[in-house]
Amino acid sequence: MSDSNGRGSGRERGRERHRGAVTLRRQAIPTSTADQRLLDSRGRGDWKTKDAWRALRILSEFVEGFDTLADLPPAVSVFGSARSKPDSPECRMAEELGAALARAGYAVITGGGPGVMEAANRGASEAGGLSVGLGIELPFEQGLNDWVDLAIDFRYFFARKTMFVKYAQAFVVLPGGFGTMDELFEALTLVQTGKVTRFPVVLMGTDYWRGLLDWLRDTMAVEGKIGPIDLELICLTDDVDAAVRHIVEAEAALSAEQEAVREEAVAQNAADQQAAAEQSREG
To answer: Which residues pair with 235 in a beta bridge?
Structure first.
C-alpha cells in the first residue's frame, strides 16, 4: 500500500505516545503503561492514594468514548494483526473489506494501528466511508495510522474494548495474534451469554482459522464445553461480498425480529387496555 494522497506512514514520524491533549516523544515516554500500573499488585502501598484518581481517569475515558462515538452511523469493527505486511493476503482482503463496508453504508472501526487495521481503514477512507481508529497505549506503540478519520487514544484496554462492542453491528476478524484472539472470544462470549444483542461474527481467512474451528468442533464441542449451536455464531469465508452480505442480512433479520417484538408489545398493551375498560364497565 503506497502512501498516496500525501499521507505518510505514522512510523516515519518517530515514536510518540498520546495522553489526551498531551503528546510524549522519545525520552519522555514512560517505560510502563497505565494498564500495567493499574494491574500491578506489587504496588499495593499506592492503591489508597492513587487508585481513586485512576478511577476518575478511567471514567473520563468512557465519557470521551461515548461522547465521541455516539453519533456514528452503523459500524463494523475489524480486527487483525498489526504485524501483517502491506502486500500480504490478509491486508489486501482487509482493504477490499473496508471499501465494501463503506459502500454498504457502514463506518469501519479498527484499533488504528498498522497492518490489517491500516488496510481496513484505508479501504474505508478511499471508498468515502468513515474510518475510525481506537488506539491504545502500548510499550511498542507505533501510533495511529494515517487513514483514520476519527481517532481516540485509550490508556485502558477495557475502556477501549467496550467501544469496539458498543458501537458495532458486527465483528470481522482477519488473521492475527493474541489481541485478535482476545477480541474474537470476547465477542463470542458476549453473544453466547446474551450480554449483548446478537450480532454476526465473521472470520476471514479460511486457511488461517480452519485449525481453530476444527478444534472448537472436534474437541470443545465434543466434550460439551460449548453447545453445537455456539458454532453457528461464526461465519467463515474468504469472500468479501459474502461477508458484507452476511452482515447486512443479519442486521435486517434482527431489525425484523425487534419490530415484531414491538408490534406484539403494542398489541398486548391494546388488549390489556381493552380488557381493563370492559372490566370497568362491568363493574
So the answer is: 202
